[in-house]
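hiii, so i know i said id send this last week but things got crazy w the move. better late than never?? heres the sequnce for the chain we talked about at the cafe, plus the structure i predicted for it. fair warning i was half asleep when i ran it
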Amino acid sequence: MCGTKGLAAFKAIIDNSFFVSSVSVMPDLGVLNDPFEELKNLAISNGIPLNPTGSKMSAPNALAVGWKKLITANYENLFVIHDSLLPKYRGWNPLVSALQNRDSTTGVSLIRADDQMDHGPIIKQVQIPLNYPIRVREAMLLVEKEIFNLTLYLFKSLESKTVKYTNQDESSATFSIWRDEDDYRIDWNMSAERICNFIDSVSFPYQSALSFIKDMRIRIVNAEVVEDIKVINRVPGKTWRLDGEFPIVLCGEGSIRILEMYLDGGFEQKLTLHSVRSRFI
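okay and structure toks below
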């Protein structure tokens, strides 16, 4: 179990008194609300042995949720809950990818793992509508609710021996690749709508969208699309005017109002511009 997705699954197990012989937990270093300590304490308080990270466990069945390392143990069945409608968005960051692509739906898939990434047969899927604008934490809460429910479904199906499988459609497979710090940076050549959507998709619990003014690293937490003007020498990223404390910034198409931004380094130094001659790059 890892991250808030793993916590949702583990709570389903604990709340319903399902038996598990042991649990492995690991930190989710890419977020600001890592529940690592909560996962550990939940196991300890319920008398569930904690496995050292990297140890090979022995059990006929295992469930992995939010896990970020290769699992090499030879289980009879390794079940995985993945936050996409497989075979779409196999791999890393499926939810962020769905939000940045403005998909109308996302979902959660319960599969039996095989030796390929997110490839095994599907046991059950749940579709989740997405209504924009939506910030990533809102979408994560919708996903975590369904992870809780799919965990219940899996354990009850195992108890009743009614697990059924459907092979994935390989012709529809797509992949989302890993992301790093460079992928937080705003491309000001995008449209105002896409930039606001991008800012929402990497907001809390992630580090938030990155930009620069000269050598200042800035995290933009919140913004909105505003009415645009005709600019004959449009340069995306230039501040057009200040609306009180909020800069109006030109995009490749349209303009945005930045509502909240901070100097990079922990969201402690809120940034307010005092000059219209500011260029975001």
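btw The first helix runs from residue 3 to 15. thought thatd interest u
miss u guys!!
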